[in-house]
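User: Here's a chain of 184 residues. Predict its fold as tokens.
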Amino acid sequence: MKQNESIDVRCDMATMHDFFLNKIDESIKGGLYFEAAWLIYSCLENRFFRVLDKYKRNCKYCVNGGKCRKGSNQLAIGTKIKCVERLYNADVSRVRSSFSAELFAEVRLWVKLRNKLMHNLLSLEHYEEHFDNDFKELALNGKKVVDDVYDACTKFRAAFFEPGYEFIFPESCMEQCPCKPRNQ
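Assistant: Prediction complete.
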């Protein structure tokens, strides 16, 4: 498949990702676990968006201006994960060879724990002592998750851009696209 971005844009994106991955490490080392968890969540969301970005131009619903249209990042992280997982389950070779069912489960669990902790934090009138340890555990576990997702995405990207690879969007995945109009 052909690259969409120029080499300069891709280099800038790599620099940005290195910055945020280093910031996660610094936050954990400095005991800033809330910050680390927030950055991990953002990086996970971006990685799944970038995988979808490679495919969505082949989806008849995305190209017509749906939520996942090019340049837009409006989908919830759970939806992004589910969309990539659908491609995995449909046996799309580049996704299948890069990701695993276990990784999807690991990411979903981490996101669920993160969301629960964030919502618990926001619904309280005062800060509970166990939150410090909860955020520490979340950040440490999240670091492993984000590293695993980056590894999978790196493997995916290399496979996706192999010469001669042509992607055909599985109709079964298209029909489950969140951009599909509800009345169809």
